[in-house]
Design brief:
The structure holds two protein chains of two kinds. By secondary structure, chain A is an alpha+beta fold. Helix content of chain A is 59%, strand content 8%. In chain A, strands 1-2-4-3 form a four-stranded mixed sheet, sandwiched between helices. Chain A is elongated and about 90 Å long. Chain B has one domain. The longest helix of chain B is centred in the N-terminal third of the chain and has 29 residues. Classes of the chains: A alpha+beta, B mainly alpha. Chains A and B meet through α3, α4, α5, α6 and α8 of A and α5, α8, α9, α10 and α11 of B.
């Protein structure tokens, strides 16, 4: 309850940062309450409901109760769904535009006045609104989708073996087809997606995810401490060593771990092919596992183990 | 086939909803609006989808069988609805209103339609973005791949080890989408993220149109101005997941978006009518539909809370102190509905 109260206390500030249009709602409420205008019964009800619901989501005590009511799956911001902000802005805007642009006066220019008023209102919306989520074809997502299509159509092994791949490919594959099974899914790195099931991942698979992240993101990405400790303690490989041999040994250990976890189909970025080839050579020598490259597409390479 | 799917999505809910509205207003001679009918019919379809979903989950019925049941039930419902609607229509033709009443200029409706058209094109044609925490497409794909409901974890395709949350398991939205798409050659991702988004967006404007009708009566210009402003708010407020604009333009297929865009405005409009005796069946439908598509507090969702707040306000507004306060703020002049 204390956590809920804290989120309810600091939540309104965060919400206001994401949606300045709340100021318009408050302005409309204030105007209609203060101006004392004659309203129809339904309009009064709308105003009263909006005011009460706004008070409920703003006051920390009631907001905490609302958060409890909406379940822990949603954060503070979601209780604002209850307050009809969009409707209040549209209704208040309609009445104000009507009044301020003198729509009752039929002098032939009321249309122009309304257009000017709407332009001003649009400017206000743009100033107080929150834009910038313009949909576009993300290049990384597009290449990952191409890889998913390639796996589905060109790699017959994908229907049998568990797939282990970088994060964008795994995301794209399950969105593309239900026929390919993954070693781990989006619930590994996205807490909201993990809320749907009680299943958790064993430590080994979490380390495999960490290792794939380092492979995908390249040298600029610092190896997570969990993976570093794991490699040093369990695999007995000195991670900080600059020697190519120790890196290949660490890579080979992680590859055999993936095979032990049941994954027989691997996808890696094409730029690390040399590194993977080196590790695969060691994998055969040390662990007796045979790895074969099946193909290359969309900046990724596909490998089959066993 | 896609055109046929569009027609089905438009006509089937309308037909079922018109029949339900005709039954609900059997004794009165109220006009049955197209928007009310479509929303009511859609809520009934959600209920049917949920019933089949529960059959699939707990009765372990395959997707193929559920599809047969879905088509059969819809066919029966449509035939019954058609008979009922035809009967009422033959007696009282004036009760069915397909289009808004005539009169007024075309400028505002034209602007509004243009705005909606840009949104529809945007939602239907642009590549979908991943809504955080949303796994609808993955779930639909896993249903199709396994020919069953929740036989595997949608995110990995592997069998569940410790199972899934019951509160999530009972939500029937992915099954409804799967059933809608199962008879048509349409890709699951396109169906969910593009096609259903347009349907939900249309539902949102119908719900807001209903409110506009209640607030402004026959004043067509004010009604379309309100809708135009709603469309502008959608365009200008789409930067965060919890905003209505984001729900309308980026993730309309998600349960919370359906709740925020359609169910809550519809519930609010029902509450505004202040005619609880006639509107309660639609209120119940609304609350139940939310429980079918959204993660709620044991089925008690936002719609119920909103209606409870409105009912409480009604009680308070009938009391003396409130009347005195109200007349002091708004004046005594108008109390007409």
């Amino acid at each position: 309850m204390r956590e809920l109260l804290q989120s309810a206390l600091y939540g309104p500030g965060g919400y206001f940062q994401s949606n300045h249009m709340v100021a318009l709602v408050l302005g409309i409420l204030l105007y209609f309450f203060a101006a004392g205008r004659a309203l129809k019964a339904r309009e009064k009800r709308l105003l009263a409901v909006t005011a009460v619901l706004l008070a409920l989501v703003l006051f920390p005590g009631s907001a905490a109760v609302l958060m409890l009511y909406q379940t822990g799956f949603y954060s503070y911001h979601w209780i604002w769904s209850l307050a009809p902000t969009t409707l209040c802005i549209a209704w208040g805007g309609t009445l104000l535009l009507w009044e301020l642009t003198g729509q009752q006066r039929r002098d032939g220019k009321e249309g122009w006045r309304l257009a000017a008023g709407m332009a001003a209102l649009l400017a206000l919306f743009l100033l107080t609104g929150n834009m910038g989520n313009l949909r576009s074809a993300d290049k990384e997502q597009e290449t990952a989708r191409q890889m998913a299509v390639y796996l589905e159509e060109e790699v017959p092994e994908s229907g049998e073996a568990l797939l282990w791949a970088p994060r964008p490919v795994l995301e794209a594959v399950r969105r593309q087809t239900g026929g390919i099974r993954l070693l781990y899914g989006r619930n590994m790195w996205e807490p909201a997606a993990a809320a749907y099931a009680y299943d958790t991942y064993p430590m080994e698979q979490q380390r495999l995810f960490d290792w794939m992240e380092t492979i995908e993101k390249g040298d600029a990405y610092e190896m997570p401490s969990g993976l570093k400790t794991y490699l040093e303690d369990v695999a007995a490989v000195p991670v900080d060593s600059q020697e190519q041999g120790s890196q290949a040994a660490a890579d080979a250990y992680m590859l055999q771990l993936a095979a032990r976890q049941g994954s027989g189909l691997w996808v890696f970025p094409a730029r690390v092919t040399e590194r993977i080839t080196l590790a695969c050579g060691l994998l055969q020598e040390e662990y007796g596992l045979h790895v074969q490259m099946l193909g290359e597409a969309a900046g990724y390479t596909v490998w089959r183990c066993g | 086939m896609i055109i046929f799917l569009w027609l089905m999505l438009a006509l089937v809910p309308w037909l079922i909803g018109a029949a339900v509205q005709a039954v609900l207003h059997w004794k009165t001679s109220e006009v049955i609006h197209m928007t009310d009918s479509w929303i009511t019919g859609s809520l009934c379809c959600i209920g049917l989808g949920e019933a089949l979903h529960l059959l699939g989950v707990f009765g372990h019925l395959s997707l193929g069988r559920l599809h047969i049941l879905w088509c059969g039930s819809l066919a029966v419902l449509c035939l019954l609805a058609l008979a009922l609607v035809t009967g009422v229509w033959l007696k009282h033709r004036e009760r069915f209103r397909i289009l808004p009443q005539k009169g007024g200029s075309f400028v505002l409706p034209g602007f509004f339609l243009l705005m909606v058209l840009t949104q529809v094109v945007y939602v239907y044609c642009m590549p979908a973005i991943t809504a955080p925490g949303d796994i609808t497409v993955e779930t639909l794909r896993s249903f199709q791949a396994t020919d069953g409901i929740y036989l595997v974890n949608p995110l990995t395709g592997q069998a569940y080890v410790q199972g899934m949350s019951m509160r999530y398991k009972i939500l029937g939205l992915p099954t409804l989408y799967t059933l809608i798409g199962s008879g048509f050659p349409v890709d699951g991702g396109v169906l969910v993220q593009n096609l259903m988004s347009v349907v939900v967006l249309a539902g949102a404007y119908m719900a807001y149109y209903r409110i506009a009708r209640l607030l402004f009566g026959d004043d067509l210009r004010k009604k379309y101005l309100l809708l135009l402003l709603v469309a502008m708010v959608f365009w200008c407020g789409e930067g965060a997941v919890w905003l209505d604009g984001y729900a309308a333009l980026h993730s309309a297929w998600v349960g919370t978006s359906i709740r925020n865009l359609v169910l809550l405005p519809y519930a609010l409009s029902l509450g505004l009518e202040k005619d609880w005796r006639h509107t309660w069946p639609c209120m119940v439908l609304c609350v139940m539909a939310e429980a079918c598509v959204c993660w709620t507090f044991n089925g008690l969702g936002m719609c119920l809370l909103l209606l409870a707040v409105m009912a409480a306000l009604d009680k308070v507004s009938a009391s003396g102190p409130y009347r005195r306060l109200s007349s002091r703020i708004f004046g005594r002049e108008e109390e007409r509905p």
